[in-house]
Amino acid sequence: MTFIKDPCGIVCVLVTYMAVLYADYVVTHWIILQTMPNSLWAPFHVVAFNTIVFLLAMAHLKAVLLDPGTVPLPQIRIDFSDLHSEKNYNHEREEWTMCTRCETYRPPRAHHCRICKRCIRRMDHHCPWINNCVGERNQKYFLQFLMYVCALAVYSIVLIVISWLYPCEDCHVDVSQAQSRMMHSVLLLLESALFGLFVIAIMVDQMHAILYDETAVEAVQQKGPYRIHRPKMALLAEVCGRGHPMLWMLPCTSLNRKHHDAPLLSHDV
Known about the structure:
Blueprint: H1 7-35, H2 41-65, H3 89-93, E1 97-99, E2 104-106, E3 111-113, E4 118-120, E5 125-127, E6 132-134, H4 139-165, H5 175-211, H6 216-221, H7 232-240, H8 257-260
Antiparallel strand pairs: 1-2, 3-4, 5-6
């Protein structure tokens, strides 16, 4: 478990939960209970919408608090004077590099984050919306978080449009309540549209990074496709776990624990 004390990241996390709670409040109180009080669809939508909110919160908390794959620091100070000697030939051959800030060797595809102030294994980027790096151990939950935000935005827009197209004819409300419901509906519609489009763009970028096996850091460094070609499902399974693809949508512990529990610093240094 980890938590980065970054002011920008903490503000973004608070804004995320405020936006989700506001969407839950508007949908439950102003849309479902106000426009379909006597319909069997009301309890269904309440349960379905809050289930998505619960899964979103679980995935987000895991992405925030889970160690993204921090490379451990050495027990003793490492002497890098013989970096190019025969002793370190294996490190170079296996693409191990040296981080002068952490003063340690780091495994392939690990990069130093200036905000976390540590090297992160298979680091994609540092995301302020989870106040954490997106790395080897939490990319699955970050992708789930994006998916649930997108689902929540689409669900909110659908419920708002339905409430406008099929208003409750038996509901007797005064003008002030009708105006308040309209105001909250418009605000939620704008919020859902903006966050939905933003999240879809990030989700497409994440899927591209996974399916083409190239993180955002590697794309910026223009290293090119230097790894061997692997099937798309194998690349997805490497991130989401070796279980059934339906389980990839749940924010549960990855079934590929053997891979993630492997020591991050397995070389003698």
